[in-house]
């Protein structure tokens, strides 16, 4: 497989079952797939930011960025994005597809005018995309997170970076947070 053959596009209606299959297979459980379904059914879903990677017309990976709130110390709410989940079908993992997919998603989020993206993920993987520990921006650690270095942010527009406040997870995340 040549990475150049992998194409990226927003999800379509006929991808839904395949996305659930890829997500469940990647994580070895259905929780993250259910998260995708709940976000998709919510007002926080951004259709352009549910992105599928396909190879020869076959979906092999998926990433979802959805809207979430940041509340600053004055109570002012603003939109940021949450990256969750990202899944590469097990037989395609470790070949650079996840990285290309994430890079593509960051580019699309920037083009759509979003200011920043938060995630809970592996501290060895996401810094390569420009994610940094969120405490650099004085963003409070959610109560369910124990590892400070896993709660990360990528600022897309430094003029609008969130600072000194907390992320308010949307109801879709209730069962996973
Ligand atoms: C994590 C994942 C999206 C990465 O995509 P990928 O196409 O396999 O990864 P790439 O080939 O682009 O990059 C390989 C790197 O990812 C790392 N990696 C693979 N799985 C990982 C995981 N679960 N957590 C952290 N890093 C992981 C590898 O160690 C490798 O690191 P290196 O470049 O320093 O050697 C994919 O492996 C996957 O779907 N895993 C199962 C689901 C999951 O864990 N999702 C992310 C939750 S934070």
Could you walk me through the main structural features you see in this protein, from its secondary elements to its overall organization?
There is one protein chain. Helix content is 21%, strand content 31%. It has 177 residues and is α+β, with helices and mostly antiparallel strands. It has a single domain (3-173), classed as 3-Layer(aba) Sandwich (Aminopeptidase). Strands 1, 2, 3, 4, 5, 6, 7 and 8 form an 8-stranded mixed beta sheet that branches. It is globular and about 50 Å long. The model has no long low-confidence stretch (mean pLDDT 95). Bound molecules: coenzyme A (COA). Coenzyme A binds at residues 26-27, 85-88, 93-99, 121-122, 125.
Q: H/E series, N to C?
A: EHHEEEHEEEE
Per the CATH scheme, the topology name is: Aminopeptidase
Percent strand: 25-35%
CATH class: Alpha Beta
Low-confidence stretches: none
Q: What is the rounded distance between the termini? A: 36 Å
What is the CATH homologous superfamily assignment? Gcn5-related N-acetyltransferase (GNAT)
> Helicity level, as a percent range?
10-25%
Structural class based on helices, strands and sheet pairing:
alpha+beta
Query: What number of structural domains do the residues give?
Result: 1
Please tell me what the overall shape is.
globular
Largest sheet: 8 strands, mixed
Number of DSSP-assigned strands? 8
| Gyration radius from CA atoms, angstroms | 16 Å
